[in-house]
Protein backbone atom coordinates (compact mmCIF):
# COMPACT_ATOMS: atom_id res chain seq x y z
CA UNK A 1 0.00 0.00 0.00
CA UNK A 2 1.38 3.40 -1.01
CA UNK A 3 0.82 5.02 2.38
CA UNK A 4 2.95 5.61 5.45
CA UNK A 5 1.13 4.15 8.51
CA UNK A 6 2.64 6.84 10.76
CA UNK A 7 1.38 9.59 8.45
CA UNK A 8 -2.13 8.07 8.43
CA UNK A 9 -2.09 7.79 12.22
CA UNK A 10 -0.93 11.41 12.55
CA UNK A 11 -3.80 12.79 10.47
CA UNK A 12 -6.33 10.36 11.96
CA UNK A 13 -5.54 11.59 15.48
CA UNK A 14 -6.21 15.16 14.37
CA UNK A 15 -9.34 14.26 12.37
CA UNK A 16 -11.86 15.81 14.75
CA UNK A 17 -10.15 19.20 14.21
CA UNK A 18 -10.45 19.24 10.38
CA UNK A 19 -13.29 21.75 10.23
CA UNK A 20 -12.15 23.96 13.11
CA UNK A 21 -10.61 27.01 11.37
CA UNK A 22 -8.62 27.86 14.51
CA UNK A 23 -7.07 24.37 14.83
CA UNK A 24 -3.94 22.76 13.37
CA UNK A 25 -5.77 22.90 10.04
CA UNK A 26 -6.07 26.70 10.08
CA UNK A 27 -3.49 27.03 7.25
CA UNK A 28 -5.57 24.66 5.07
CA UNK A 29 -8.69 26.75 5.64
CA UNK A 30 -6.76 29.91 4.78
CA UNK A 31 -5.16 28.62 1.56
CA UNK A 32 -8.28 26.78 0.37
CA UNK A 33 -9.95 29.80 -1.33
CA UNK A 34 -6.70 30.52 -3.21
CA UNK A 35 -6.37 26.93 -4.43
CA UNK A 36 -10.05 26.72 -5.28
CA UNK A 37 -10.08 29.89 -7.39
CA UNK A 38 -6.86 28.91 -9.19
CA UNK A 39 -8.34 25.52 -10.10
CA UNK A 40 -11.70 27.00 -11.08
CA UNK A 41 -10.06 29.64 -13.29
CA UNK A 42 -8.16 26.97 -15.24
CA UNK A 43 -10.92 24.34 -15.28
CA UNK A 44 -14.36 25.80 -14.46
CA UNK A 45 -15.83 23.32 -11.97
CA UNK A 46 -19.59 23.70 -12.56
CA UNK A 47 -20.97 20.46 -13.98
CA UNK A 48 -17.58 18.71 -13.92
CA UNK A 49 -16.88 15.22 -12.56
CA UNK A 50 -14.05 15.76 -10.06
CA UNK A 51 -11.95 13.52 -7.84
CA UNK A 52 -9.91 14.80 -4.88
CA UNK A 53 -7.06 12.40 -3.99
CA UNK A 54 -6.06 12.52 -0.32
CA UNK A 55 -9.14 14.57 0.54
CA UNK A 56 -8.73 14.32 4.33
CA UNK A 57 -11.67 15.97 6.06
CA UNK A 58 -13.02 17.31 2.78
CA UNK A 59 -12.18 21.03 2.91
CA UNK A 60 -11.30 21.27 -0.79
CA UNK A 61 -13.77 18.54 -1.88
CA UNK A 62 -16.72 20.32 -0.36
CA UNK A 63 -15.70 23.74 -1.70
CA UNK A 64 -15.47 22.29 -5.23
CA UNK A 65 -18.93 20.76 -4.80
CA UNK A 66 -20.23 24.21 -3.81
CA UNK A 67 -18.98 25.41 -7.20
CA UNK A 68 -21.33 22.93 -8.85
CA UNK A 69 -18.96 20.00 -9.39
CA UNK A 70 -19.89 16.36 -8.82
CA UNK A 71 -17.10 15.46 -6.37
CA UNK A 72 -15.58 12.20 -5.17
CA UNK A 73 -13.10 12.44 -2.29
CA UNK A 74 -10.76 9.53 -1.57
CA UNK A 75 -8.42 8.96 1.36
CA UNK A 76 -6.93 6.16 3.46
CA UNK A 77 -7.74 7.73 6.82
CA UNK A 78 -11.06 6.28 7.93
CA UNK A 79 -11.44 8.86 10.71
CA UNK A 80 -10.86 11.82 8.37
CA UNK A 81 -13.46 10.42 5.94
CA UNK A 82 -16.01 10.02 8.74
CA UNK A 83 -15.48 13.68 9.62
CA UNK A 84 -15.82 14.61 5.93
CA UNK A 85 -19.03 12.59 5.56
CA UNK A 86 -20.54 14.10 8.69
CA UNK A 87 -19.70 17.64 7.59
CA UNK A 88 -21.21 16.97 4.15
CA UNK A 89 -24.45 15.86 5.83
CA UNK A 90 -24.48 18.92 8.11
CA UNK A 91 -23.72 21.40 5.32
CA UNK A 92 -26.04 19.75 2.80
CA UNK A 93 -23.25 19.81 0.18
CA UNK A 94 -23.17 16.32 -1.39
CA UNK A 95 -19.75 14.65 -1.84
CA UNK A 96 -19.09 10.95 -2.45
CA UNK A 97 -16.33 9.82 -0.07
CA UNK A 98 -14.47 6.52 -0.45
CA UNK A 99 -11.85 4.75 1.66
CA UNK A 100 -9.63 3.63 -1.22
CA UNK A 101 -6.07 4.09 -2.49
CA UNK A 102 -5.54 6.28 -5.55
CA UNK A 103 -4.00 3.36 -7.44
CA UNK A 104 -7.03 1.13 -6.72
CA UNK A 105 -9.40 3.90 -7.72
CA UNK A 106 -7.47 4.38 -10.97
CA UNK A 107 -7.91 0.70 -11.78
CA UNK A 108 -11.65 0.88 -11.02
CA UNK A 109 -12.59 4.22 -12.63
CA UNK A 110 -9.93 5.00 -15.25
CA UNK A 111 -10.65 8.01 -17.47
CA UNK A 112 -13.84 8.95 -15.62
CA UNK A 113 -12.95 12.42 -14.32
CA UNK A 114 -12.78 15.88 -15.91
CA UNK A 115 -10.64 17.22 -13.06
CA UNK A 116 -8.28 15.48 -10.61
CA UNK A 117 -6.88 17.30 -7.57
CA UNK A 118 -4.16 16.10 -5.21
CA UNK A 119 -3.23 18.77 -2.70
CA UNK A 120 -0.71 18.65 0.16
CA UNK A 121 -0.49 14.88 -0.13
CA UNK A 122 2.47 13.87 -2.31
CA UNK A 123 4.96 14.83 0.42
CA UNK A 124 3.32 12.33 2.80
CA UNK A 125 3.53 9.11 0.71
CA UNK A 126 6.40 6.66 0.06
CA UNK A 127 5.96 6.69 -3.76
CA UNK A 128 4.65 10.04 -5.05
CA UNK A 129 5.28 8.99 -8.66
CA UNK A 130 2.66 6.23 -8.31
CA UNK A 131 0.07 8.79 -7.13
CA UNK A 132 0.85 11.02 -10.12
CA UNK A 133 0.39 8.00 -12.44
CA UNK A 134 -2.93 7.19 -10.74
CA UNK A 135 -4.08 10.80 -11.25
CA UNK A 136 -3.10 10.62 -14.94
CA UNK A 137 -5.10 7.38 -15.29
CA UNK A 138 -8.20 8.79 -13.57
CA UNK A 139 -8.48 11.89 -15.76
CA UNK A 140 -10.22 11.92 -19.14
CA UNK A 141 -8.24 12.86 -22.25
CA UNK A 142 -8.39 16.66 -22.37
CA UNK A 143 -8.99 16.80 -18.62
CA UNK A 144 -7.07 18.71 -15.94
CA UNK A 145 -4.90 17.52 -13.05
CA UNK A 146 -3.77 19.77 -10.18
CA UNK A 147 -1.10 19.09 -7.58
CA UNK A 148 0.29 21.10 -4.70
CA UNK A 149 3.27 20.20 -2.54
CA UNK A 150 6.46 21.55 -0.92
CA UNK A 151 9.76 22.25 -2.65
CA UNK A 152 12.93 20.67 -1.24
CA UNK A 153 15.62 23.24 -0.49
CA UNK A 154 17.07 25.17 2.45
CA UNK A 155 14.40 27.89 2.27
CA UNK A 156 11.55 25.34 2.29
CA UNK A 157 13.10 23.61 5.31
CA UNK A 158 13.44 26.94 7.08
CA UNK A 159 9.91 28.15 6.30
CA UNK A 160 7.82 24.95 6.23
CA UNK A 161 9.51 22.99 9.01
CA UNK A 162 11.40 25.34 11.36
CA UNK A 163 9.15 28.36 10.79
CA UNK A 164 5.68 26.84 10.52
CA UNK A 165 6.13 23.96 12.98
CA UNK A 166 8.55 25.33 15.59
CA UNK A 167 8.57 29.14 15.55
CA UNK A 168 5.10 30.21 14.41
CA UNK A 169 3.49 26.95 15.66
CA UNK A 170 1.09 27.07 12.70
CA UNK A 171 1.43 23.29 12.28
CA UNK A 172 1.99 20.45 14.76
CA UNK A 173 5.67 19.43 15.13
CA UNK A 174 6.44 16.51 12.88
CA UNK A 175 3.79 17.41 10.27
CA UNK A 176 6.40 17.37 7.52
CA UNK A 177 9.38 15.15 6.72
CA UNK A 178 11.84 17.30 4.77
CA UNK A 179 13.28 14.24 3.00
CA UNK A 180 9.90 13.70 1.30
CA UNK A 181 9.64 17.22 -0.13
CA UNK A 182 9.57 17.28 -3.96
CA UNK A 183 11.18 19.80 -6.30
CA UNK A 184 9.11 21.26 -9.17
CA UNK A 185 11.52 19.56 -11.61
CA UNK A 186 10.88 16.17 -9.98
CA UNK A 187 7.11 16.63 -9.95
CA UNK A 188 7.13 17.82 -13.58
CA UNK A 189 9.14 14.71 -14.49
CA UNK A 190 6.64 12.43 -12.68
CA UNK A 191 3.82 14.15 -14.57
CA UNK A 192 5.45 13.88 -18.01
CA UNK A 193 6.41 10.24 -17.39
CA UNK A 194 2.74 9.58 -16.57
CA UNK A 195 1.69 11.13 -19.91
CA UNK A 196 0.59 14.52 -18.59
CA UNK A 197 1.46 17.89 -20.04
CA UNK A 198 2.67 20.46 -17.48
CA UNK A 199 0.87 23.76 -18.18
CA UNK A 200 1.62 26.04 -15.23
CA UNK A 201 3.43 26.36 -11.92
CA UNK A 202 2.38 28.79 -9.21
CA UNK A 203 3.95 29.63 -5.88
CA UNK A 204 2.13 30.23 -2.64
CA UNK A 205 3.52 32.64 -0.08
CA UNK A 206 2.71 33.52 3.53
CA UNK A 207 3.38 36.90 5.11
CA UNK A 208 3.91 36.30 8.87
CA UNK A 209 3.29 39.99 9.63
CA UNK A 210 -0.08 40.34 7.88
CA UNK A 211 -0.80 36.58 8.33
CA UNK A 212 -2.08 36.49 4.76
CA UNK A 213 -1.42 33.85 2.09
CA UNK A 214 -1.15 34.79 -1.56
CA UNK A 215 -0.41 33.18 -4.92
CA UNK A 216 2.75 34.41 -6.63
CA UNK A 217 5.51 33.22 -8.96
CA UNK A 218 7.87 32.14 -6.17
CA UNK A 219 7.83 28.32 -6.13
CA UNK A 220 10.66 28.01 -3.59
CA UNK A 221 8.45 26.76 -0.72
CA UNK A 222 4.78 25.87 -1.43
CA UNK A 223 3.79 25.48 -5.05
CA UNK A 224 0.94 24.32 -7.28
CA UNK A 225 1.18 22.54 -10.64
CA UNK A 226 -1.52 22.45 -13.35
CA UNK A 227 -1.42 19.66 -15.93
CA UNK A 228 -3.60 18.37 -18.74
CA UNK A 229 -3.91 14.94 -20.27
CA UNK A 230 -3.52 15.41 -24.03
CA UNK A 231 -6.53 14.46 -26.16
From TrEMBL:
SUPFAM superfamilies: S-adenosyl-L-methionine-dependent methyltransferases
Residues where S-adenosyl-L-methionine binds: 35, 54, 75, 119
Molecular-function GO terms, alphabetical: 2-polyprenyl-6-hydroxyphenol methylase activity; 3-demethylubiquinol 3-O-methyltransferase activity; polyprenyldihydroxybenzoate methyltransferase activity
Pfam families hit by this protein: Methyltransf_23 (PF13489)
The keyword Transferase appears for this protein: yes
Catalytic activity reported: a 3-demethylubiquinol + S-adenosyl-L-methionine = a ubiquinol + S-adenosyl-L-homocysteine + H(+); a 3-(all-trans-polyprenyl)benzene-1,2-diol + S-adenosyl-L-methionine = a 2-methoxy-6-(all-trans-polyprenyl)phenol + S-adenosyl-L-homocysteine + H(+)
Protein's pathway: Cofactor biosynthesis; ubiquinone biosynthesis
Keyword terms, alphabetized: Methyltransferase, S-adenosyl-L-methionine, Transferase, Ubiquinone biosynthesis
Keyword Methyltransferase carried by entry: yes
Gene3D superfamilies: Vaccinia Virus protein VP39 (3.40.50.150)
Classification via InterPro entries: SAM-dependent_MTases_sf, UbiG_MeTrfase
Enzyme class name: transferase
This enzyme's EC code(s): 2.1.1.222, 2.1.1.64
CDD domains: AdoMet_MTases
GO biological process, one term: methylation
HAMAP family: UbiG
Purpose: O-methyltransferase that catalyzes the 2 O-methylation steps in the ubiquinone biosynthetic pathway.
Family from the record: Belongs to the methyltransferase superfamily. UbiG/COQ3 family.
PANTHER family to which the protein is assigned, alphabetical: METHYLTRANSFERASE, UBIQUINONE BIOSYNTHESIS O-METHYLTRANSFERASE, MITOCHONDRIAL
Protein name: Ubiquinone biosynthesis O-methyltransferase
Classification lineage: Bacteria, Pseudomonadati, Pseudomonadota, Betaproteobacteria, Burkholderiales
Amino acid sequence: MNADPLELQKFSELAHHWWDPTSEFKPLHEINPLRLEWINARAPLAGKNVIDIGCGGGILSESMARKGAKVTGIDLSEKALKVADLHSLESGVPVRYKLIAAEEMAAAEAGQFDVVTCMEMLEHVPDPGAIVRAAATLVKPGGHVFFSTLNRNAKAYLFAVIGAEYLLRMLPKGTHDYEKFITPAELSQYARTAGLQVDALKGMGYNPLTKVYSLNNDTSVNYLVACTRPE
